[in-house]
Design a protein that fits this description.
Length: 65
């Protein structure tokens, strides 16, 4: 088993409690739950927005081309 370097981060108690609850619900560690949240962050949301916008404007864009 490879040892992973660990650290402590300071967050408000309410945030800690939400992270703990999410981790318990997913049956993962708090670190794994936090990693999943980071993986689902804004980059994907921006790409989804661009994709939706392109689809909704595709007909008009084709006429302009």
């Amino acid at each position: 088993m490879t040892q992973v370097e660990m650290t402590t981060i300071k967050v408000p108690v309410a945030v800690r409690d939400r992270l703990k609850a999410r981790a318990e619900a997913l049956h993962v560690t708090q670190g794994e739950a936090l990693e999943r949240l980071l993986d689902e962050s804004a980059d994907e949301n921006i790409q989804a927005y661009i994709t939706d916008a392109m689809e909704s404007w595709s007909e008009a864009l084709e006429r302009l081309a």
